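Have a close read of this protein, sequence plus C-alpha cells, and explain what the C-alpha cells say about the fold. Thanks in advance:
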Amino acid sequence: MKPIIITLMYLTTFGDIKLDSFEIHMPCDSWYHYNVKVTEQKQRKMFSNLYYHEYEGKQVVGYICGGEEPS
C-alpha cells in the first residue's frame, strides 16, 4: 500500500490548533480508530454527547488525510 499522509489537529493550551503530519501505511479511518483513544465522554445537552480524543497525551480535535501535507 502506498504511504498516506495523516495530519492530526491538536488543541494547544492557548486555544490554538497545532498540526502534526506523518506517514501511515493503512487507511486513515482505520489508523485513527486504532490509535486515537476516546478519553472522556460528557453529555452537555439532552440527547447529545461530547467526546474527548487523545493521541500520545495530546487532545486531538480532528484529522486531515491525503497524499500531501496540508498547506
Remarks:
- Residues 4-66 form one domain.
